[in-house]
Amino acid sequence: MCAQNPQTKQGKVFTLDCCLDGDQSQADVWRRIEGGDLVEKALDGFNVTLMAYGQTGSGKTYTMFGESLSTGTDLDENSGLIPRMITELLKGLDRKQKNEPGFDSWKMEMSVVEIYNETVRDIARPEGVSLLMSSVFSEDSWTLIDRRTRQPLISKVDIKSQGQAMDAIKSSFDRRVVKKTAMNEVSSRSHCIISLHVKQVFAYGDADDDRFQLKAQVNLVDLAGSERGRTRKWNANDDREAEAISINKSLLVLNQVIFKRSEGKRHAPFRESTLTRLLENSLGGNAFTVLMVNLSPSPDDYGETLGSLEYAKRAKRIQNTVVQNAGDVQADSSDAPPLPTVTEEFFNKWPVEQYALNPKPALRVQ
């Protein structure tokens, strides 16, 4: 695509995996990002991340959620990527349970957290928001664990239907920090990460230990809007300005991480921000990642648009190494990180697609 400077009329060309204009429907977006393929990857035991980035008011939350967080089992034309992902995952699990030989059981759990002023808040807890401050990150960087007990601190909701999932998300969003700014009537003042934890168990013999499992984590990320250079112009008061500074700091670190990863650097400043620490596996790690960059069509926002496209250009160069999370059920504990990838010997027991043994780059930018 080409970004044209409204004053000089000079353009700059960027190469992305696809580009969609404002006339595209939510179904078109799902199809163009190959959402069905991402669902199948998760069902095959691979981690997946969908992440929306862009300036305030560019449509990130609409892309991820749609017009509302209404409940129900049927998708409509305004349903965003998150309800579509949840619905298709549940359909796929039901299909496998009915049709796939050896399929024993499945379980899907969901966690909902926000990162507000660099603090992780568990907004899925029905008793109220839990501030996770005296905690450390787990070894695989997907969650937070208690320093003393080493147990996960982020709660999980058992999911059996799309309606149940959307009910839980709607209740969680009632606790999310959203406020009015001069640029947006309802502005997300925090980063939100919805994680779907999918576990499938298969039996390949009569003995109790003749079982194996596939596990996957699907991260659905709605980033707060970038406001580089606009804090005093757009924010309605000092509180909003302080929030914008915190948001910009975390996005700056995210940008630095993407720059380091895109250059093939081994070390990147993941630990300098809570956001990047939680998303470490999604950026050059063990996940199929799709980054959606939302842009404003306004000429006044050309600077932000150019910055977002430069960000996307660098992200596209990141090489993720993806492995399948598969192994024996006995080797697992409910709170352990995903098991290592399968081995050649494993294929003698159960036919899993061969590409599981061949990690490959997997980050797309839309």
Which spans of ≥5 residues are poorly predicted at pLDDT below 50?
A: 180-186, 231-235, 333-362
- The CATH homologous superfamily corresponds to Kinesin motor domain
- Helix/strand-derived category reads alpha+beta
Shape verdict: globular
Helix tally equals 9
Distance between the termini: 11 Å
CATH fold description: Kinesin
Helical content class: 25-40%
- Provide mean pLDDT, rounded: 77
Count of discrete structural domains:
1
Rg over C-alpha atoms, rounded to the nearest angstrom: 21 Å
The CATH class: Alpha Beta
* Percent of residues in β-strands: 15-25%
**SSE run:** EEHHEHHEEEEEEHEEEEHHHEHEE
CATH architecture: 3-Layer(aba) Sandwich
Largest sheet composition: 10 strands, mixed
Count the E strands. 16
